[in-house]
Amino acid sequence: MGKMLSAETAPLQETLDRTLDRTLERLARFQHLMPDNALANYYYAVSLSKVEQSADAPDEPTSRKVEILLEKAIQIDPKLGAAHLQLGILYAQRGDYARAILAYRKATEVSPELEEAHFRLGQAYRRAGDVADAKKELLIHEQLSKTNRDETQRQRNEIQEFVISLKAEQPE
């Protein structure tokens, strides 16, 4: 459930509201039952963040709770790059680009494969006027994107070949 919500990039639509409510409820329970589980805190924070994003106006108490949950996830597992990334996104939404840069840097340090972290770090550097570092991070993002696209295409080709070989083996 948590992975599903963290993968969702578009604002939540009305058709997902009931599913979101149930998922949020379950993730809250999971976090309550497993408060020392980094992923429980992370996924609950992401789900709350999605609810806040779908609302008309930002909710300061919810935003603060998301921050606390992400900080707790990071405290439990400092190598959870996705949590550092989400914390950076939260800071950037608040206009706190200095803290966002620190969080994005940490995300790229502990999880160098996170495309989005490099992209967002590049954007934050650009906003801060650091053109050289912005270019460097955006170049890394482009390289990771190309590698991931190539890997996805390779996997698709393998699946196609597998299906074709299965069809060829079946008697007619």
Task: Please characterize this protein's 3D structure.
By secondary structure, the chain is mainly α. The protein has a single domain (2-169), classed as Tetratricopeptide repeat domain (Serine Threonine Protein Phosphatase 5, Tetratricopeptide repeat, Alpha Horseshoe), CATH 1.25.40.10. The chain is 80% helix and 0% strand. The chain contains eight helices and no strands. The chain has helices at residues 2-7, 17-33, 38-54, 60-76, 81-93, 97-110, 115-128, 131-169. The radius of gyration is 19 Å and the shape is globular. The protein starts with a helix and ends with a helix.
Strand and helix layout:
Layout: H1 2-7, H2 17-33, H3 38-54, H4 60-76, H5 81-93, H6 97-110, H7 115-128, H8 131-169
Helix pairs in contact: 2-3, 3-4, 4-5, 5-6, 5-7, 6-7, 7-8
List the keywords.
172 residues; mainly alpha; Serine Threonine Protein Phosphatase 5, Tetratricopeptide repeat; globular
Brief sketch in words of this structure:
By secondary structure, this protein is an all-alpha fold. Helix content is 80%, strand content 0%. The chain has helices at 2-7, 17-33, 38-54, 60-76, 81-93, 97-110, 115-128, 131-169.
